[in-house]
Amino acid sequence: MQLKKWLTTAAASLALATAGSSQPRPDASPSCNSYLFAFFSNNSPYGEQVRYALSDDGLNYTSLNQGRPVVGSDTIALKKSIRDPYIMRARDGKTFYMVMTDMRSDEGWQSNDGLILMKSTDLIHWQHTAIDFPERFPHLAGFDRDNLHAVWAPQIIWDEEAGKYMIYYSIGRHDWEYPTEDPNFNQPYFKLFYSYANEDFTDITEPKLLFDFGTAAIDGDIVYNPKEKEYVLFFKDEGRPVWNKGFRTQQGVMRATGRKPTGPYTVEWRHLQKEGQYPVEGSSVFPLIGSDEYILMYDCYAQGFYQFCKSSNLKDFTFVQNTKTHGDFTPRHGSVMHITAEERARLEAWSALSIATENLRTRPVPTLTLKQLKQRSALLAEAQSILDTTSDTKAMAAMTRKLEKFN
Fold this sequence. Notes:
The chain is mainly β and about 400 residues long. It has five helices and 22 strands. The strands form six sheets. A four-stranded antiparallel β-sheet has the order 3-2-1-22. It is globular.
């Protein structure tokens, strides 16, 4: 999938057609009938790219593009790899935002300094901006290249009071490390920060402290609970077990509540995931379509499955199932949003064309005549042009049929 850059007016980029205050995220609509899961796959450079999967029920997913990337990290990231994609529908109902960690894990877990902002109107072609914190905020003490070691797992929520999209993320700095029970090991101290995106979704404001757990906390996910009229912050207590206000951290999902998206937040000192499954990370909460229930999912990366729990109050969660990660569906830390039948058809048409293009591109040369080689070259160029420039479902389907008829 190639990226498409364009300019938009401020009015178009932030038309505020409210999509329903009863949902924790503004991506639910009566016309939505499917779920789109955006994720990365593993800790290799090939795995650290955006992938998609679809679901009818929010629990069981099928990968698009046979599990191959849908956005090439080398085209969007300073590190040429990404992690932790968070995808959402904007309040205008037709624009999509995605944010992610700009990181390459084989360079080390304390080696990334930024995040990526993405914007699309079709979920296929994306404009992008990579934000490098030491370069973007050179005046901030402690955020220099030598001291800053992590900007992780950004997510987005609409701040009604500010009238802006708030991007929040975890920050780790070397001067915040603290001792653990192991005298030979200091724990990186992560705190949650937030910024506001500009109207074009190409820049952010100076980071401000959002949440300090007292020990390391990462992977924040904020949703609005309309029943209690409060914001719920889900997060992971990160790092090696330590005692924090009489609570022993164990790398689990926790919960805090506040009256504003910017806090302050009051912590509930308990883990939410099913007992006995440690460690977990990358929790994400989304509403079930046509229901007043919510799904809490998180990555049980050491066990080889995603775990799904259900709640009607965003407080008490019951275990539903473990969805095994295998074959071309091997998700790591990702997020889910609702999509319409039209959007699903477009993504499936893109996936079918991408697969047909790859199948023809990799067809062994000895199986082709000289005439077929020339025909293949022309067909591949035509197909790539459509993949790069259009999101028309019929055009993509017609090109797929054309490729599949080649012999």
